[in-house]
Amino acid sequence: MASREFLAAMWTALGGPAGVIDRVDFRETGDLPSVFAVSDFAAAAVGAAGAATAELVGTRFGDVPAVIVSRRLASLWYGWSIRPEGWKMPAPWDPASGDYATADGWIRLHTNAPHHREAALRILHTPADKAKVAQAVSGWKADELEGAVVQSGGCAATMRSIEAWAAHPQGQSVAASPLLTIQASDDTHDSAWSPTPEQPLNGMRVLDLTRVLAGPVATRFLAGLGANVLRIDSPTWDEPGVVPDVTLGKRCARLDLRAEPERFRHLLSQAHVLVHGYRADALSNLGFGPEERRRIRPGLVDVCLNAYGWSGPWMNRRGFDSLVQMSAGIADAGMRQLRKDKPTPLPVQALDHATGYLMAAAVIRGLSTRKGFQARASLAGTAQLLLSQPRSTSDTLTMSDSDWSDQLELTEFGPAHRLRSPVQVGKAFLHWDRPAVSLGSSPPSFT
After folding, report:
1. Residues near 211 by Cβ (< 8 Å), separated by ≥ 6?
2. CB 219 within 8 A of CB 52
3. Most exposed among 123, 199, 341, 417, judged by the fewest C-beta atoms under 10 Å?
4. Closest to 408 (Cα-Cα) out of 436, 439, 441
5. What is the 3-class SS of 348-385, one letter each residue?
6. Helices 38-61, 350-369: inter-axial angle, 10-degree rounding
7. Nearest to 377 by CA among 393, 396, 392, 356
8. Per-residue burial over 181-218, b = 16 or more CB atoms within 10 Å of its CB, e = otherwise
9. Local confidence band at 223 (pLDDT 50, 70, 90 cut-offs)
10. Tens digit of pLDDT for each residue in 138-163?
11. Are the CB atoms for 98 and 108 separated by under 8 Å?
12. C-alpha pair distances (Å), 377 with each of 17, 216, 288, 310, 381
C-alpha cells in the first residue's frame, strides 16, 4: 500500500528514529476520487503526526504506544471536518477565483483576499464579474498574465504539465531540496507543561501565525492533543470560508506586528512553539528573523511554511494549494488522464492538509528533542512527494452518519458535529475543549 511508502518518506524527512513507524497501523478502506493516491497520502501524513506523538509519549512515559490511523477518516478530514446543524458554511471561494482559459492554455486566479482580488482585477481592467474576467483573461498568454498579476501583488498560477514543472527553475529547485529542512540547536527549552498519556501536549503554548490552510490544520491537530494555541491575525485579515473548520480548539486574537512589535515579542517569549506561514522574508523584514526569535525564546520549536519552497526564484512568491497544484502539473495530469476539457485538480486541498500534518509532526518531534528546533516545509515540496508514487483512479469513499461524533459542538456560528478522530495514539484521541470561534474573538494572551 502506498501509505507505507509515503509514511517512510515523511518519517525520514522528519528525522524520526527507526522503528517508531512500525507502531503505525492503517485500518479501513476507501479512496478519494483522483488520478493520484490521495487517500494513501492523507493517511500517511496523519500517521506521521501520530508517530511523532507516539515518540513523544515514549520519551515522557517510557513506552511508545501503538498508533491506529483510520484511512477512511483521515481522507474525510482532508475535506470539511464540520457538519453544521441548522446553518450553512460560508462560501469557500470568492466569485472571481477560479480557472480561466487563456490564449495559449489555462491560468488560476486566487482572489479570496480583497487585496489579491484587487491586484488581479487591476491588471485585467475588469470588474469582479466572472464572465467579464473570463473574457479579459482570454486575450492574455498564461505566463504573461501570471507574471503581471504576481508583480501587481496578486496570486495566479499557469497550468503546467509535470514535465514542464520539472524543467522550470523553481521546479528544479524544489526537486533538489528535501521534503523538510530541519535544524536543531543546543539551547534547551523549559518543560513547564503537563503532558499526560491522554493529552500529550497538555499546557504546551503554541503561537500560531498561520493562514489558510496548512498552518491552521497543523495547529488544530496540536490543539486536539491538549496544546494551548493562540492564533494571531492582522486587524484586517479574514478567511470566512474556512474559519469554522480550522479555529477549533484555539484562542483567536488580532495584533498588528508592525505597530506593536513589543507585544508580539512578549507573546513569543512565553511560547514553547511558533508556527508561521508568512512568506519566507516576512518575519525577518519585521525584525524577527530566526536568530532573533531564538534570542527572545531560547529553545523555541520554530516550524514554518512556504508555498513554493525555500530556495529558487519563486521562494518569496505568494501561493496557495490550488495554485501549486496548477504549477506542479497536478491539475494538468488530472485533466489528461481523465480526458477532461479543463484543469482537474485533486478532490481536496491535499497539499495543504498533508503539509499541515507534517508541520504538526515536526513540532512534536521538536518537543521530543527538548532542544531548540527549526523545521521548514513547503506546499511544493509536499506536491513533489505526492507525484513520486503510482497513480490511482479509485472512487470508493462514501460518508456515513457513523463518521461524525455524537457530541454537539456549540460553535460561535451555530451548533455542529465534527468528524471523529482519525488517529489514536495509545490512550490519546484528538479532542478539543474549545469550539470554533471567529478571528479576533479573544485578546492576544495565552490566558
Report:
1. 233, 237, 239, 277
2. no
3. 341
4. 436
5. CCHHHHHHHHHHHHHHHHHHHHCEEEEEEEEHHHHHHH
6. 10
7. 356
8. bbeebeeebeeebebeeebbbeebbbbbbbbbbbbbbb
9. very high
10. 999 999 999 999 999 999 999 999 99
11. yes
12. 19, 14, 19, 8, 7
Contact 319, 307 (CB under 8 A): yes
The CATH number of the structural domain formed by 94-412+431-447 is 3.40.50.10540
My answer on whether omega of the bond before 124 falls inside 30° of 0, hence cis, is no
Distance between CA atoms of 195 and 447, rounded to whole angstroms?
18
Alpha-carbon separation of residue 225 from 7, 20, 221, 372, 430 (angstroms): 21, 19, 7, 21, 6
CA–CA gap between residue 22 and residue 442 (Å, rounded):
41
Distances (CA, A) of 6 to 28, 45, 64, 79, 366: 17, 8, 21, 20, 21
What string of DSSP letters covers 389-432?
S-----------GGGB-SSPEEETTEEEEEBPPSEEETTEE---
In our burial notation (b when 16+ CB lie closer than 10 A, e otherwise), range 95-106 reads ebbbbbbbeeeb
Task: State the sign of the Cα–Cα–Cα–Cα dihedral 318, 321, 322, 326.
Answer: positive
**Tell me, what's the pLDDT at 392?**
67
The per-residue pLDDT for 191 is 64
pLDDT of amino acid 393? 65
Amino acid at 441: S
Per-residue pLDDT of 52-61, as tens digits, reads 999 999 999 9
Give the Cα separation of 174 and 35 in Å (integer): 22
DSSP letter at 89 equals: P
Of 69, 67, 66, 72, whose CA–CA distance to 26 is shortest? 69
pLDDT in tens, 332-374: 999 999 999 999 999 999 999 999 999 999 999 999 988 899 9
**List of residues 6+ apart from 282 with CB closer than 8 A:** none
Alpha helices by DSSP H, 127-188: 130-137, 142-151, 162-167, 169-175
Grid cell in block for residue 174: 524544489
On average, the pLDDT of the chain sits at: 95
Grid coordinates in use for 203?
Answer: 499546557
pLDDT over 70 (residue 3): yes
Measured distance CA(403)–CA(384) in Å, rounded: 31
How far apart are alpha carbons 294 and 310 in whole angstroms? 20
Cα gap 120→25, rounded to integer Å: 46
CA dihedral (118, 120, 126, 132) positive or negative:
negative
CA distance 352 to 379: 7
